[in-house]
Amino acid sequence: MTSSALLSAQGQHHPVAIIDIGSNSVRLVTYDNLDRAPVPSFNEKSLCALGNGVVTTGKLAKSGIEKALVALKRFRALAEIMGIDDVRVIATAAARDASNGPEFLAAAKAALGGREIALLSGAREARLSALGVLSGIHAPDGVVGDMGGGSLELIDVKGERIGTGTSLPLGGLALMDASGRSPKAAAKIVREALAKCDALDALQGRSFYAVGGTWRALAKLHMGERAYQLMVMHGYSIPAREAADLADLVERVEPSSFLAIDSVAAARRPLLAYGAVVLDELIRRAKPKDVVISTYGVREGLLYEGLGPAQRSADPLIVAAQKLNRLLARVPGYSDELIDWTHDFLESAAIAETVDERRLREASCYLSEVNWRAHPDYRGIQSFNLVSSAILPGVDHVGRSFLSLVTTLRYAGLDEEVAPQTRTLMPPKLIERALLVGATMRVASVLSAGACGVLGAAPLTMSRSKLVLTLPPRLAALSNDRLLGRVKGLAKLLGRDAAIEVA
Length: 503
Known about the structure:
With 503 residues, the chain is α/β, with parallel strands linked by helices. It has 21 helices and 15 strands. It is elongated, with a radius of gyration of 25 Å.
């Protein structure tokens, strides 16, 4: 499906806002469109700690209620000035567990101008978390764990199959309250709760998808200790053994000891030890292979749930790359031609391509022309910065590294050691594939100048001894030393001679 056709299928422009009333924070997130790859256009939270003390007092904290109502009035006003009519409001553990929850929700509804608030059950919250992970992680296989301030939701997900969710009172604020602010006592509470939880029985050797601000904060600490170069939270993977070691360290030492502690909000730091306790006990109990951070959770699950079957079946990585292409490329239709041209070349060269390699190639074609407005001397590095930090669902850090390297090579060339930050994250075979795709794009860019109607008429083929770019007579004038140099650069990677012929 072409870029324009798929974008049309994704629906018309439909901005949407979600107000999420959680146990620790109250948040407004607005999205550019209700489609397969929604991009947050505004994101603001207020750490109200509504759930602080609910375990011991049974009630929402008065100070938390006051802060939340102030935040909700502001969020209502923001949605109005942004002109967003589709505003969805949800509330989770604190509001459903507290005896004064109904009273608070009535006041919250008034603060929002009478807008209805959906109070999620634990099972409903777990399902939406799983749908969120499904919307943002390519082919997930494991258990989703959404840890908020008041509860921990666990639910199995494998591809599009979602299990039955469960909710445990193991949120950060709830644990802090129940344990008397003792991580050691909290560990006992968590151990006993997880021992009775069958949601983790099938997790061994699979991935644990961690959703929630406290676990994202722990991942930031891990990134800091590793001096990790790709500072994107979504899709960040930590081997289970390293995650357990990190959790053990966080339980024992002061947060100020970590290099990246400044990246964690001061109000969230007291919860780090309790998030670490849950993670440590969970790894001991279930033995996952790794912990994968998902920034996609309940809110994104709510959006995904509202899509039609055709929209759901679309690849979110491709949709996101197409959206960037449509917004930033010189000639958006060129990328569709580039996809077909590179595909035909790989077939002629008998170079096999897996399903994952194909989707990465197609995404890189859509991203190849999005940085043409930058100064020519800086297009390579700016392409790297744009792609490595873009909001791209459906791709892990290895795949993101591939996209970053290819789009950098397309501008910077093959003679320089470009994007060393990401090469360390990729296996040698994928680096080799990135060089091949990048070199092919470099031929296409000089051949066509990014214009439509050229690539389809000028096939690139490979025989046992030679790589040949064939031009039709009407395009013979395009042949020059610069174009031949690009063909030679690709031919060198393939161990072939290079030629430009006019048919």
